[in-house]
Design brief:
Number of helices: 5
Distance between the termini: 46 Å
């Protein structure tokens, strides 16, 4: 069954990405070969975390669900702070991967934590699986980009 309220979960992560496509990064490096498995996992994970929430309703009644919601909000705050730094500091490509408050690749880690937490309040094992797949592709790929561009 379709749950339109749950659409807010992927939309909150996608909002800064819309601006990213309109305001591309400065100092964009030349194309580099990316690991096929990481790219595939990242794509599959992304499609899953965007679509799966639409079929689950939100549940924030128990203590663990409230804790998951707090983790979602903290992850989202770090994510937005990282994007804010990127836009405020001239959209340098390296800022997409630069550590934030000691957290490596925060724009890769925070959405994965966000969706892992969302799997709890949606009671969705499918979202959990797609979040793990996203993390398995997105985090190592971002770390690789960071190392390549520093």
């Amino acid at each position: 069954m379709f749950h339109p309220v749950s659409l807010i979960i992927p939309l909150m992560i996608l909002l800064p990405n819309v601006l990213f496509f309109k305001f591309e990064p400065q100092n964009l490096p030349g194309r580099t070969a990316r690991n096929f498995l990481l790219t595939g996992a990242e794509f599959i994970g992304r499609m899953g975390v965007i679509t799966v929430p639409l079929f689950y309703s939100l549940h924030v009644q128990n203590g663990y669900e409230v804790l998951a919601l707090v983790m979602m909000l903290l992850s989202l705050g770090i994510y937005y702070f990282g994007w804010g730094r990127y836009f405020r500091d001239g959209r340098a490509y390296r800022l997409l991967f630069t550590p934030l408050m000691g957290v490596p690749v925060p724009l890769a880690l925070s959405p994965v934590l966000y969706f892992l937490s969302a799997s709890v309040i949606l009671h969705s094992s499918y979202l959990l699986i797609f979040s793990i797949i996203l993390g398995a592709g997105h985090i190592p790929a971002s770390l690789s980009d960071y190392k390549r561009n520093t």
